[in-house]
């Protein structure tokens, strides 16, 4: 039997690459199915107080199975592919810093173009990844929502946890690189920098929840939002200081909430920058997107299920 299997893999080299990746994805689906079946069995039991921890444990297993499935199937059917998301912000930071060095342009603020690039690229990419990957997660895991125990909100929540974990690992890697080249990565105003990072996460979740509802009605929105994401990246001050523009242009650019989040992070590294942040405007964006996204999930999302 072993000889037959070896001969088949020798005669068909693709059997050992694509088929193994497919089998890994199938194993994830089997594990998720087992978790869902366990959750269903717990739901059939009498709802006693002692049974609640078991129900929570089964639900957490469903979330963990969804997270492992997302991490494995995103890049080349391997957990190592998940590192691409972690390294991606570093590549943006290095490309921007290299472009400034080639053109002999000094850092727009501070003494390092690396820190300037990091303060712009990290919050923008955190917002973009979360808002986009939540939408893609629904499309990939849509068949799983046919289980009565798996809801769209569960798929969204698992993908949010995966993206937050990946973005945090990316931030840690950026800090290590900045520290390795002899710079101090710790901001002067830690509260401002952390608050800006959290706002980028929350805004990404809010916009991503709206994208989830849109993509279930119009799947082509995946491509449309990629184009919008490119425009947001270019208009959010990642590669320049928005306050250097004329006042009337800068006032228009401030309508972009991601730009204000980037400026909030940069204020953490240089509190003397001539920048004013409209905290109420950022809060209204986060609250508004969360409200609209959850309302759409209760209507369009459940109708789709």
From TrEMBL:
Ranges for domain ABC-2 type transporter transmembrane: 63-266
Membrane-spanning intervals of the chain: 79-102, 114-131, 160-182, 194-215, 222-241, 279-296
Name used for this protein in its record: Capsular polysaccharide transport system permease protein
Family, per entry: Belongs to the ABC-2 integral membrane protein family.
GO MF entries: ABC-type transporter activity
Highest taxon listed in the record's lineage: Bacteria
Topology relative to the membrane: Multi-pass membrane protein
Sorted UniProt keywords: Cell membrane, Membrane, Polysaccharide transport, Sugar transport, Transmembrane, Transmembrane helix, Transport
Biological processes, Gene Ontology terms: lipopolysaccharide transport; polysaccharide transport
GO cellular component: a single term: ATP-binding cassette (ABC) transporter complex
Cellular compartments annotated: Cell membrane
Transmembrane helix listed as a keyword: yes
